[in-house]
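Lab notebook, bench 4. Still working through the backlog of constructs that have no structural model yet. Next entry is a single chain of 651 residues. Request: give me the structure tokens for it.
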Amino acid sequence: MNHKEHHQHMIEMFKKRFIVSLILTIPILILSLTIQRWVGFTLEFPLRGELLFVLASVIFFYGGWPFLKGAIDEIKNKNPGMMTLIALAITVAYLFSSATVFGLEGEGFFWELATLIVVMLLGHYIEMRSVLSASSALDELSKLIPNEAHKIENDKETDVSVDDLKKGDIIRVKPGEKIPVDGIIVKGKTDINESVITGESKPVKKTKDDEVIAGSINEDGTIDIKTSHLKGDNYLSKVIKLVEEAQESKSKTQNLADKAAFYLTIIAISVGVITFIVWYIISNDLAFAITRMATVMVITCPHALGLAIPLVVANSMTLSAKNGLLIRNRTAFENSRNIDIMVFDKTGTLTEGEFKVHFIETANDDIKENDVLYFAASIEQPSEHSLARGILKEAKNKDISLDEVTDFEAMKGEGVKGKVKNQLIKIVSQDYIKKNKLTQLETDEDHEFSTPVYVIKNDEVIGMIGLYDKVRDDSKATIKALQDKGIKCYMLTGDNEKTAKEVSDYLGLDGYFAEVMPDEKQEKLKELKKNYNFIAMVGDGVNDAPSLATADIGIAIGSGTDVAAETADIILASNNPKDVVRLADFGRKTYNKMVQNLIWASAYNIIAIPLAAGVLYAYGIMISPAVGAILMSFSTVIVAINAKLLKFDTD
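Model written out:
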């Protein structure tokens, strides 16, 4: 039985026990002398007290069993809490009332015991339904995937169950249909609505070789997809797992609430005992003193305090996932409200990460541009770097035939090298050229935002290729929005000083670090930590792993179907930098909602404890155990409703 099924079973159990206890409470109320006096009738007969005892015993052991069992578990775990308080209250009430039936002087209060248990059962039923409602929204994600797919085999289309698909199968998705699996488009082009997955409101254009995510909606074109991740291993499954792990983890705020709930339990028991002693001394009425003690213990139950954080977490984690923010570290997420500097990696974060050849310069007139491109593209064939992809794409566009590269080697932070037709070729950065005092090439053209790489043949510079990486459309607005919130924005890049300054000036950044090697990024972050309290690093989650781990909050952006960015605290499924702003806003709203719940739960107890103890008894204000139970349950429901009011701004 999984967690949700267990929760639903518990709801049905509380409902059944509530109905049975309610039915048995009616005759108990009729047979109670106190109720008879209030209403003005008499119903006295032999063994009336014994019948009351039997009915109350059934309610105590059947209706009160969840609380008695819960108390045993709490005591075994050395963590007394709500169940311990309720069990103490109903046990004392039951034992005292039972004793009056069999000879103890005084009048028992079976009716108060019965109504207390009935109200507590109803309160728990309502509260557990609220909890299930707050957390079951996660199930909506799994419902996004259709049950059937159009499988293409031997040019024939057959409808099959998604569970029967295998990796590498070809399926067809028609306009208006949901995509059933993660995969790669092998035929067709279309616009995909990924809003329910990544929170991106605008449809995304997709064509051959582009990835698609299960659950997103194909808007206008028919596409054939080669399956890459099946049910259970697709993007949504990974998201659901991440959210469940985040919900089960505890942050500092949650630990604080748990400690407060524990101490409140100790206070409730202490105040309850003191209340009993004081009222027994003042009134010499054992039944009244026990009633006051029971009321204190019930009304002071820290249930609302214990649920204040988990209910907000359940809602916020699901809302985040549905809007493309995947939270792996809850503490980091809650701390996003404290960010005072946001450091961005440039390539693939502030820029699109797809380099295009902007220009090619040759060392002399005897060297042709295509020769420079030929050697560069041939050498870059084994490379996965974004610059390499740009060079290879340009060679393909120009129909340049490439030759095999041998002895390929990546030079850390400097470039790559290898042999083409037995000639040593190096593709290096401008920093390498400076360090080795090689010939630098000049150009008079306006090459804004271009990143130059040099092509060296047998230790002689033969040309330079300028690659252009377009700044994302939303980057400038993102920087402005963050700065309006008082957050400084910096950029880390391995690019040369000229390109870094151009990008920084265009975006209006507060500062930047250029020509930074991957292993140097951590040191730059440590420098910034000397002047700023809380640093967030935004990168691609792979190349920026060390710096993401060094920052107070590591944010991986543009992960697409890869949600396994192990060093990131938060993963943004979309590559839209605006999500960073939405993250900061939602982190603040989530924390504020937690604080609201904690304030309500704490303030309620501050007011409720004195009233339950009877400090205003002289003014005719007295709370019965049943009323105390109603107030306690009401406070829990308010906390649940407040958690559900948390909303995610999609603008």
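Notes after review: The mean pLDDT is 80. DSSP finds 23 helices and 22 strands in the chain. Flag for follow-up if needed.
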